[in-house]
Design a protein that fits this description.
368 residues, 4-stranded antiparallel beta sheet, Serine Threonine Protein Phosphatase 5, Tetratricopeptide repeat, 2 domains
Length: 368
């Protein structure tokens, strides 16, 4: 009997020290991760999901302590909540971000929350490999932010993190459990991040292999009216290097940047060469970029040129819809959408024109 007991104990030791060759189910606190791209920045949360398990009304201020507390284990005498279960909840940012408008460098952080009934303090710690918050030390804090606590009408059984309210440069990330929600805004300087990405790729040699890369980077500067001098140099290289090419895209982008520097005569000369090279799709995209720069009259001239050259083209009809829409002539925009719908033989385009007509009649925004 004694030998059987020893064998059993050794077997248990073998299992718990990680040498077992069989798979055991996870504990009740499921591991999970959620990620979202904000602009070109990836945000990822790794956490474990405890359950309410019939403890409604006993989670907050009880199971999850309020504020910073002595948990009577580990080294911390004033620990926040681990913002989940088991190991550190971690949150990782691939670039620098702002949390509730406060800057935080790129990196992986241990994430803690000092809960309260009305407000919570979010803690981003440079120490991200702990078990829970038992060894939390404020000297490792990278950022603390206070946010309001919100109440939910329906109970969330398993703790979760969820992204919402996404825009091109921001999103709200919220912890939700039982009838409580703790949301906070994550925002990025998208234009700054994008230019830095272009520069990294430029230095790696990627730019030089394809004129398309240099043109797209230069056009981003043009449309967003940023980094213009460097953008002009990229536009020049998209044409005048071994891998460069003089085509509608490269010439029109270069012309647009030259105009930013009051070199209009050179810009006009380039556009005279560029326009005859353009396809209907390229003219549509060029006019669209002019609209983004608030040059609506100039955009309309491009759309009209496109339509006059190719009145049966889907892209040309769409350009007229777009042109009149940005000139705030909804009646004419609807008229050309109806023409496009009647003219096209492609089901996808017919459905698209139909949706534009419906949305404009409903007063919805159709082009952003």
């Amino acid at each position: 009997m004694k030998s059987v007991l020893i064998v059993f104990q050794l077997t248990v030791l073998f299992i718990i020290t990680g040498h077992s060759q069989i798979t055991f189910p996870p504990d009740a606190n499921k591991k999970a991760s959620v990620s979202e791209d904000i602009g070109i920045t990836t945000v990822k949360v790794n956490y474990s999901r405890p359950q309410v398990k019939g403890r409604e009304g006993k989670i907050w201020g009880d199971l999850v302590h309020y504020g910073f507390a002595d948990l009577h284990y580990g080294t911390s005498k004033a620990a926040p909540w681990r913002a989940g279960a088991n190991e550190n909840t971690t949150i990782e940012f691939s670039t620098e971000v702002s949390i509730e408008d406060k800057p935080l460098p790129a990196g992986k952080y241990g994430f803690f929350i000092a809960m309260g009934a009305e407000k919570a303090t979010l803690v981003f710690s440079k120490f991200n490999t702990a078990w829970g918050s038992f060894y939390y030390d404020p000297k490792d804090d990278a950022l603390r932010v206070e946010v309001p606590v919100q109440k939910l009408n329906e109970s969330i059984e398993r703790l979760k993190y969820e992204f919402s309210d996404q825009t091109e440069n921001a999103a709200v990330l919220s912890l939700q459990w039982e009838k409580v929600k703790v949301p906070f805004k994550i925002s990025v300087d998208l234009q700054k991040m994008q230019i830095e990405a272009f520069r990294r790729e430029f230095n790696s040699g990627i730019f030089y292999r394809f004129w398309q890369n240099m043109q797209m980077a230069a056009n981003y500067c043009l449309v967003n009216n940023i980094n213009l001098e460097e953008g002009l140099s990229w536009a020049d290289r998209s044409i005048n290097t071994f891998f460069g090419e003089a085509n509608f895209l490269t010439l029109s982008t270069y012309a647009g940047l030259l105009e930013k520097f009051n070199r209009k005569k050179e810009a006009d000369s380039l556009m005279q060469k560029a326009l005859p090279m353009a396809t209907p799709l390229q003219l549509l995209m060029y006019g669209s970029s002019l609209n983004k720069m608030k040059k609506h009259q100039e955009a309309f001239k491009i759309f009209k040129m496109n339509y006059d050259k190719s009145p049966k083209e889907n892209y040309a009809n769409l350009g007229m819809v777009m042109g009149y829409y940005f000139l705030e002539n909804k009646k004419e925009a609807i008229k050309y959408a109806e023409k496009g719908k009647a003219m096209t033989t492609e089901p996808g385009w017919k459905s698209y024109f139909d949706s534009l007509i419906s949305d404009m009649n409903a007063g919805k925004e159709i082009f952003k």
